[in-house]
Structures are given as structure tokens and as C-alpha cells.
Recover the amino acids of this structure.
DNA sequence: TTATGTGCAAACTCTTTGCATTACC
DNA sequence: GGTAATGCAAAGAGTTTGCACATAA
């Protein structure tokens, strides 16, 4: 792990401790391990996947703890979730940069993108209907370039 | 029900029979009832809600049949589904007009909209990444005008 | 010390499947 | 008459909860 990443990870961990303390809770190894896994994954993970990853790093953990921690992290907006099709929810670390998703229906790969123009249009549409926009999600479904070639 | 609606509903039912036949299957009262309920609801319904609606109209039906029928109708693209938050999937009749959704986080109301400019931008973004766009969904979350006043 | 966090197992919810029976063609 | 569709009940998958024990402050 580069020094840069090392530092970044420490910042996330510090943020976690801060938020835990702010809510009068206690720090725990499990919450920290889950955050580490999400940081290193750098992609969307299911609760089950997170559970196995944490176990690999020789830490003891239960699935219930993963669910509880993800609920906490999502409330604190430190992670975001996405769900599509019949697959369950998947989680990723909230890096603070909003983005949308392109999802390959063949291999399940999730790519991220951001387009300022669309964001503006969404605001405009909401405003027209007197709707107070708090969040949004946009998912594009199709075939990634690799899967198109295979087909 | 107006003559106009009567006619429209008949068209959907004819389409259903056509698609059932095309797949070498048999027509059934239950599939027809489910389509009727979706037509009259004119909004998103959960499988459970559809089940209860059909029962009201003095038809006998099981939840399993609702799930099986919805799967069939979705494959045939006669209905579309949407899922958000922890709530399960909701279904609506596919009227052939693509649209996106604004979802009120307070009362759960779902409003539909369509914006040609956003559609174009989505195409453009996909193209840039060599992604073959097959479908998309865009959900705006927030507070509808009524719920803003209440708060 | 004492309240919170955890792991485990049981409970729950939503959805799917197996099977005997019914309905369609 | 033969095949597909249905209802019911049981099975699955994913998630949540209760509880005794472990752990952080």
C-alpha cells in the first residue's frame, strides 16, 4: 500500500472513530475491519463478501455484525448502497464524490461516471414539479466493451 | 370505465393472449386478472398488493401465481419493475412510454417524468465508454410538494 | 465497572419450488 | 386427453433480532 493510500485510509478510520464517539458509542475492531475492506475493495461488495473478506484477515466476525455495521455506516453516510435486479444490496465507501453507475448485464461489472449536465437537468426537473431533491440514482444497464466482443 | 379505457384494456388483454400463445402456453383467468389490476391501478404495485386486489374481485388466486405471472410479464416486457430502499419490487404496466421516477421519501408517492435531453446525454456517456446501452433507470428522491408543506 | 458490541441461533420477510389438482385447448 | 397453470405448503435466500458473553472506556 502506497504512503498516499496509507494516509487516506487513516483519514477514513479517524472519521469513523469521530462519528462513533459523536453518537456515544464505542470503537470496535469489527467496524474498523469492515471499513478497511471497503477501502481496499474499491468497488461494490455484498454483505456476504465483506463478511468473508474480514474473516480472511484472521479477524473473527459474524454476518449480523456486518449488517449492523453497514446500517450504521450508511446512516452516517460513510458508505452508499446500490441494488439492482434480483441481486441484493451492494455497498461501497462514500468517497464524497457523487457519481452514477453503468452496470454490465453480462459480467456484473459496475463502472462509475459523473456528468455535470445531467445533474443540472435533474435539479431543473425537480424544481418544476415543486419537488425537493435530496438524492438521486441513475443506472445505465447494458454490455461493457469486453462482453460485447465476447458475444 | 370510459369507452376509451375499455378499448385500451382490451388491447392489452389481446397482447397478453398473443404473447402467451406465441410461447406455446395456455391462457388463464389469473394472468388476465393480474393484467386488469395493473391496468386500473395506474401506479406501482407490490406483488402482495396485486394479490389482494385480484382476490377482491372475487377471483381465486395464490401469491405464487402472482410472482410467476409478474416474472412472465416482465420477460415479455409488458410490465416494468422498480425497487428502492428496503422495500421490495413494485410493478407497473408498460405503456410503451419510457419514463423516469421521482420518489417521495415521506409518503412513498411515485411521480413519473421524461426528459429528452437527459436521454440523449445518457446515450452520449455510454458511447464514450464503449458501453452498449440497453436500458436505464433514474430515480430522484426527495420530498413532494405536499410533504414539504406538512413538515 | 458498566454500557455497548459481538457471535450465534432463531425468527422474519420476501420469493421460489415441488407436487397434487384444475383448467385450458 | 394431454399439457400447462394453479394453489398450497414447504423450502430458500437475505436480513434482523434476542440473548449471553466479550470488550472498550
Amino acid at each position: 500500500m502506497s504512503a498516499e493510500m496509507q494516509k487516506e485510509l487513516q483519514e477514513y478510520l479517524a472519521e469513523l472513530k469521530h462519528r462513533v464517539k459523536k453518537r456515544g458509542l464505542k470503537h470496535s475492531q469489527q467496524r474498523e475491519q469492515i471499513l478497511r475492506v471497503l477501502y481496499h475493495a474499491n468497488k461494490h461488495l455484498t454483505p456476504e463478501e465483506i463478511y468473508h473478506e474480514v474473516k480472511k484477515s484472521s479477524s473473527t466476525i459474524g454476518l449480523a455484525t456486518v449488517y449492523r455495521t453497514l446500517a450504521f455506516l450508511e446512516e452516517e453516510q460513510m458508505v452508499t448502497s446500490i441494488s439492482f435486479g434480483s441481486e441484493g444490496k451492494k455497498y461501497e465507501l462514500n468517497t464524497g464524490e457523487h457519481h452514477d453507475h453503468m452496470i454490465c448485464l453480462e459480467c456484473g461489472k459496475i463502472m462509475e461516471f459523473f456528468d455535470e449536465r445531467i445533474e443540472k437537468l435533474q435539479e431543473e426537473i425537480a424544481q418544476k414539479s415543486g419537488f425537493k431533491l435530496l438524492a438521486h440514482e441513475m443506472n445505465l444497464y447494458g454490455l461493457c466493451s469486453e462482453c460485447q466482443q465476447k458475444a
Summary: The radius of gyration of chain B is 18 Å.
